[in-house]
Amino acid sequence: MDVSELLDDLNKPQREAVAAPLGHTRILAGAGSGKTRVLVHRIAWLIQAEALSPANILAVTFTNKAAAEMRGRIEQMLGYPIGGMWVGTFHGLAHRLLRSHWQEAGLPQGFQILDSDDQLRMIKRIIRGMSLDEAQWPPKQAQWYINGQKDEGLRAAHLQAGEDPYSQNMLAIYLAYEQACERAGVVDFGELLLRSHELWLKRPDILAHYQQRFSQILVDEFQDTNTIQYAWIRVLAGQTGHLFIVGDDDQSIYGWRGAKIENIQKFHKDYPDASTVRLEQNYRSTGNILAAANAVIANNSERLGKELWTEDADGEPIQLYNAYNERDEAAYLVQEVRNWMNQGGKRSEVAVLYRSNAQSRVIEEALMQSAVPYRVYGGLRFFERAEIKDVLSYLRLISNRRDDAAFERIVNIPTRGIGAATLTQLRQYARETNQSMWQSSVDFLQQKILPARAGNALSAFLTLIDSLTPEDDSMSLHELTALVIDESGLRTHFAKDKTEKGQGRIENMDELINATREFMRADDEEEMPLLDAFLAHAALEAGENQGDQWQDCVQLMTLHSAKGLEFPIVFMVGMEEGLFPGQKSSDDPLRLAEERRLCYVGMTRARNTLYLLYTESRYLYGQEMHPRPSRFLSEIPVERLHQVRSQKNMAAAGLTAIASRSHSADDTGFRTGQQVMHQKFGPGVIIDTEGNGSHARVHVNFKQAGSKWLVLAYANLETL
Ligand SMILES: Nc1ncnc2c1ncn2[C@@H]1O[C@H](COP(=O)(O)OP(=O)(O)OP(=O)(O)O)[C@@H](O)[C@H]1O
Ligand SMILES: [Mg+2]
Fold first, then answer.
1. What is the pLDDT of residues 331-348, one digit of tens each?
2. 456 with 536, same domain?
3. CATH number, position 176
4. What average pLDDT does the chain have?
5. Ligand nearest to the CA of 600
6. Which NCBIfam families match (predicted)?
7. CA neighbor of 345 nearest in space, from 43, 582, 607
């Protein structure tokens, strides 16, 4: 593609933006108006028309997937690879920077990334170590506090506790957490940005190097940057760098995680000479979809205000389906997907979007039963599954003995007789001597502090890790992974669990071996040991590459992770009050506005057909609900909607659909929703049933004991 062609498939304001003179540019425009397309063309323009080197360009995208697509698209346009360009997420880019400057940033060379689950465990331990009551000081709350401070660029040292116990304890936990991370040589997600930002501030020479290099900085989805991310960009741009930011205030959906819509306006104040381009033509959706989305978002106040129009025909009306319950909802969805496939459509052209991850299970089941391949983005991702994290923790400890989170996770998995008392002693010693758990263990063994049995068990564990650590690089990563799974005893451990769950865990571990076999280091990671590159990949990309990349799959994801994407067919499920908008948002105008933006994001993902589904009754989080239809549905002009079936039919169809399934009353003698009594656990409600005969199981939500799966043959349940 030569220079003139770069501008061919663009409208006038888009061309203006792509070919803008070097300087600061802000693009403010609604969904599907070509913002991302303009950003991609701009990069090609910088290289071709402005004769800049790809190495001068740094582009920030919202997901790793978007980054890969962007790179591919530009290479396709230019006809050659653009290795030197940096494109990635904020976290990915910050991570890359810290890998190159670990020493200057005060990190160990093999520092590992702590994902939010690891982080929570660590915080839990700290709270216990401080003898605080976990019920009164929930670890999740402390995690939220810590991450919130980091998003604002604040360390414990920057903060001052007030008089109240809340701020005092939170600050103390934050401080202890920072020290524990330091000791373990691990960084959490927020730390990646915070630390690279600090690195630049304390090392002007390093900053100058990057400022000289990255004269062009482009940011997609700017409306969802938080304080530290914006600060990071500003520092990098300095006096000479040029910023090209694109965003849509109506699509800001991460306020709950510290994103600041205001950054869009702040940008204008911080860079008064920036030119602003507005795009108003939508190229993605049909007239009906666009009109409906515009009508919904119009209910928000305090918008920067823009209208979108399309040259497209109205297209099909929006399909509104009133399901009987969540299974009926899933059954209808599967039926429509199959219709689409029968017409020659591809599965990957279909997206199912939900508000909460917990909604995916029923839909997954329905798709599975009909043998429709699907892929889940986000949610319980492959790399977040317990057994995978166990194996990864072994690998992490193999790579870095100071990784306390990994040590703690697997020291007694599978059980090897290292008890809580030993661990408490070790932790205390580690804190006092400011050493890792590993080093503390070594000291303990040398000084023969532990009783013989505990000492032997601990010593066996250390020997195991040492023996698994390769001495040279003659062993491939997947051989090492297989070895770890077998020698650690994890395989035998999980094989003892004969249920499907246990089987699934083994399959997952085998899939991990596949993942390590297929893993290829990125160009910029050549210096890094393959194992470390893989561990970083596992932490950063969790879930994004799940399933077989090449298989034609229906795409399942939360509304949040659908941002920036588009699909010919979109199903939005669970359009119900209490779920979407969520319960807590109903009486908080700010949160409600954010939910509405999320609805706008969801609707504008659809190109041709949009389905909105809601149910009369739903089991979620172990409770039965009888929700009202979402208020967002009533904000859509009726002439844009087509009610798919009448409510009465629906209820009947829903009932037969349920009765015809294996999960029905005939198999177990119980039905969902039934009240039961258990001798030990007390009263509860059946929330699911499966299997039959002696294998029949019921899932019961007990008032006191929480939810449990019980085998009917042994449960002695009484109906109430
Ligand atoms: N001038 C154009 N001519 C034809 N198609 C276009 C044009 N501009 C954009 N498109 C197409 O419209 C769709 C939406 O574009 P894009 O994804 O860049 O929009 P966006 O503004 O980034 O949307 P979002 O806000 O959802 O991120 C894409 O399929 C894109 O290829
Ligand atoms: Mg976009």
1. 999 999 999 999 999 999
2. yes
3. 1.10.10.160
4. 88
5. 1
6. PRK11773.1
7. 607
Average pLDDT over residues 81-101: 93
pLDDT category at 638 given cuts 50, 70, 90 is very high
325 and 457 share a domain? no
Lowest mean pLDDT among 101-115, 298-312, 362-376, 655-669: 655-669
Final residue belonging to a domain, choices 260, 279, 298: 279
- 220 flagged as catalytic: yes
Domain that holds residue 689: 665-719
Residue 647 lies in a domain: yes
Label residue 647 by pLDDT band (50, 70, 90). Answer: very low
Nearest by Cα to 376 from 345, 355, 351: 351
- List pLDDT tens digits, range 175-232: 999 999 999 999 999 999 999 999 999 999 999 999 999 999 999 999 999 999 999 9
CA of 60 to the centre of ligand 1 (A): 18
Q: What is the pTM of this model?
A: 0.77
DSSP per residue over 553-619, as a string? -EEEEETGGGTT--EEEEEE---BTBBTTBGGGTT-HHHHHHHHHHHHHHHTTEEEEEEEEEEEEEE
The catalytically annotated residue of 505, 605, 607, 697 is 605
Given ligand 1 and candidates 249, 253, 284, which is best to mutate, with the most ligand atoms within 8 Å of its CB? 284
Question: Is the CB of 188 within 6 Å of ligand 1?
Answer: no
Per-residue pLDDT, 510: 84
Query: How does strand 675-678 pair with strand 682-690?
Result: antiparallel
User: Is 428 one of the annotated active-site residues of the chain?
Assistant: no
Residue 591 lies in a domain: yes
Mean pLDDT confidence for 621-633: 84
Does the annotation count 251 as an active-site position? Answer: yes
Distance 33 CA to ligand 2 centre (A): 8
| Beta-ladder partners of 122 | none
Per-residue pLDDT at 672: 72
| Residue 224 CB–ligand 1 contact under 6 Å | no
Indicate which CATH number applies to the domain containing 85.
3.40.50.300
DSSP 626: -
| CB of 10 sitting under 6 A from ligand 1 | yes
Pairing relationship of beta strands 697-702 and 706-711 according to DSSP bridges: antiparallel
Task: Judge contact between 84 and 158, C-beta under 8 A.
Answer: no
Residues annotated within the binding site for ATP are 29-36
* 348 & 266 share domain: no
Residue 104 lies in a domain: no
> Number of folded domains in the chain?
5
pLDDT tops 50 at residue 656: no
Residues 453 and 398 in one domain: yes
Q: Determine the Cα angle at 237 with ends 56 and 195, to 5°.
A: 100
> Is there a catalytic annotation at residue 35?
yes
Residue 204 DSSP label = H
CATH number of the domain enclosing 700: 2.40.10
On whether residue 247 sits in a domain, the answer given is yes
